[in-house]
Amino acid sequence: MIAKSNQILGLIKRSFVYKNIDVIKKLFTALVRPHLEYANTVWRPRYKKDVEAIEKVQRRATKLLSNIKDMTYEKRLQLMNLPSLVYRRYRGDMIEVYKFTHGIYISGDNLLPRAPKSVLRGHEYKLKKRHCRKQLRANFFSYRVVNFWNKFPDDVISASSVNTFKSRLYKYWANYCYTLDQEDILRR
């Protein structure tokens, strides 16, 4: 996945003489980012070195612009209005949880069981945190999303549609859009 993304990025670099922010952003989001984000909900990089390797592709894409390549990575992301790939993975997870909890996906309650009503404090869609003994299980979708989802305020969770949820989520996590630290997003 990373090799394929780097190949496409190299092709963009060699093929385009005139490079401005809009051109690079459109090419990156249309041609490269889909390779990096394919099936994010199913798999997730487990180790920090893997997260950094994936983010390195986007870092390289932002350096294609000669006038901003000396800036920090976060500044380049802000100028190009590109969220970090870490943020996009968490955002994608939360959108999928919204679809499961609000009945858009028809599935049993086995994947994301709801917390008992007697222990609810906050919104009515809180999820039950299962116990896991192995570190491998902690990276499964049904386990990794629970802490994030349960911390959301009621006004974000009670959105009437997926698009409304996306806009409320963006406002709630707006300060973390360009961050690379997973723990920053979790602390919110």
Question: What can you see in these coordinates?
Answer:
By secondary structure, this protein is an all-alpha fold. It has two domains: 2-82, no CATH class; 88-187, no CATH class. The chain has ten helices and no strands. It starts with a helix and ends with a helix. The model has no long low-confidence stretch (mean pLDDT 85).
Question: Quick gist of this model?
Answer:
The protein has helices at 2-15, 21-37, 48-62, 73-80, 85-101, 141-144, 146-151, 154-157, 162-172, 182-187. It is an all-alpha fold and 188 residues long.
SSE layout and pairing:
Blueprint: H1 2-15, H2 21-37, H3 48-62, H4 73-80, H5 85-101, H6 141-144, H7 146-151, H8 154-157, H9 162-172, H10 182-187
Helix pairs in contact: 1-2, 1-3, 2-3, 5-9
Helix content: 40-55%
Overall average pLDDT:
85
The sequence of SSEs as H and E is HHHHHHHHHH
Number of helices: 10
Rg over CA atoms: 18 Å
| Structural class by SSE content | mainly alpha
Global outline: elongated
**What's the structural domain tally?**
2
Number of strands: 0
DSSP strand (E) fraction? Answer: under 5%
Largest sheet: none
> What is the distance, rounded to the nearest whole angstrom, between the alpha carbons of the first and last residues?
30 Å
**pLDDT < 50 stretches:** none
